[in-house]
């Protein structure tokens, strides 16, 4: 049975492997949009009913305007690169929630929430675009679907561990399950950091495509760092440290500018033809 599960995992990794556009990272995803998007849209609607949508019309308009500009750039990129069906599956929506939490997120399919608590960190429209680009990038790269795929793999891995230690004494079974559990947890955390780093890069490209200043993506994390954060070691964190993000974004800035400018120039030529 253990060998069968291993073969299944190998088979899945072969048939479900694809490449994230722009970054070129290889990913494994067995979760289709038809499986995840209806649930995503329903959860988003439920969230809005249970949380206080901001009554600040001016700031809500800013969030929605930036969101539409970023999503329009992403939509143009997808359609220009043969991802028409995928582009059609998005149901973009942007809402500001009256909550002091310093956070924002985007569910699969383009459902975005900004909390009022993150606005001081954003500081300006370009800062909002930096955070917006990052969150939209999670949906674009299908990080939610990829994490679900990984969870399925973990479940199968847990079964394999149980079967493999079935003939051993109780102490050995506890030891191996503990090792698997810790290794699995840290593996998932590292995987999440991979997603965060990728979303930082993609988000920077998208905000440039939409006409915003990419330098502000770096400054957002400078300001976040000034607010202080967890002292937990980075290898046990779901996100890269603020300093790591700042360094990575500074290093990636020339690549992001070159990529976005090249796309925008080609897109302008195509629109005239």
From TrEMBL:
Keyword flag S-adenosyl-L-methionine: no
Keywords of this entry: Hydrolase, Metal-binding, Metalloprotease, Protease, Zinc
Residue ranges annotated for the Peptidase M48 domain, each copy included: 71-251
Family: Belongs to the peptidase M48 family.
Pfam families: Peptidase_M48
Organism domain of life: Bacteria
Cofactor(s) of this protein: Zn(2+)
Species of provenance: Lutibacter holmesii
Protein name: M48 family metallopeptidase
InterPro entries: Mito/Outer_Membr_Metalloprot (IPR051156), Peptidase_M48 (IPR001915)
Cofactor: record remark: Binds 1 zinc ion per subunit.
